[in-house]
Amino acid sequence: MPFQPRVAILIPAPDYEEKWQPAFARKAAALTAAGLIVEQRVWTDPGDLTGYDLVLPLFAWGYQRDVAAWYALLDRIESEGLPVVNPVPVLRWNSDKAYLAELGAKGVAVVPTVEVDALDDARLAEAMAELGVDEVVIKPAISGGADGTHRVAPGTPIPADALGQRRLVQPLMQGILTEGEFSLFFFAGKFSHAIVKRPASGDFRVQEQFGGRETVWDAGDAARRPAAAARAAAPAPPVYARVDMVGDAAGTLHIMELELIEPSLFLHHAPDKGAAFGLALYGAI
Fold first, then answer.
1. What is the pLDDT of residue 211?
2. Residue 146 phi, psi dihedral angles, 5° rounding
3. pLDDT of amino acid 198
4. Whose CA is closest to 277, among 264, 267, 285, 263?
5. Homologous superfamily (CATH) for 6-95
6. d(CA 275, CA 33)
7. pLDDT digits (tens, 9 = 90+) for 226-250
8. 208-218: per-residue pLDDT in tens?
9. Which helix (H) or strand (E) holds 42?
């Protein structure tokens, strides 16, 4: 009988509000088709993980709300030498969006970003002046699902949850409103598929819980090249990667995020419905 590795997928805590089960079913089906045995473990209390051939944080949703527990889990996985994909150094690096500055320093075209240690009116004004814009998006450096992400126009007060907090300040990229946000997916270093996510009317957030919707997108070289460059700039080669991109007013694409921890992969939009994803994970064992 062929070897069937046991895989633990880390899932959200029971009280997590977002609907994650349909996406889990698609990923689990792709892994099962590749010959893997899939089991669930809650990321906040996963118990003994030593019997697994691979641990996947694919649904560690909500880690940004308990950062200490998340980093403690990474430390534990590392200290116990557990097989995890993506590797712990990649997961740790990708947890904090300060990595955008590193990507920019390596020549990757990223969304211009100013990091502020403690946001107030004066520092916000300075960041806007530095960026040369009068409308920005502010977000936590450790975030997910658009948690704590706000659009701030001139004269708009700083949201209470951001005041005095460490925040990233970015220009409101006009492409998000006109064309949407593009996501490109890579498995074992090879391009798989791409989608475009568009926000609901009057919003700038593209996530489904805010009314966003997605469709398949035919990504050309102008998108694939910077996406591949962003992926290659990670501390170690990621087995799975989602690269989110958005255009500026001139249509030039910039990297918004490099998702290497728990991204939605939209496998139902992949031409092979996730076969390359499953094979990439099997090959990582």
1. 54
2. 65, 20
3. 80
4. 267
5. Class I glutamine amidotransferase (GATase) domain (3.40.50.880)
6. 8
7. 999 999 999 999 999 999 999 888 8
8. 665 567 788 89
9. strand 37-42
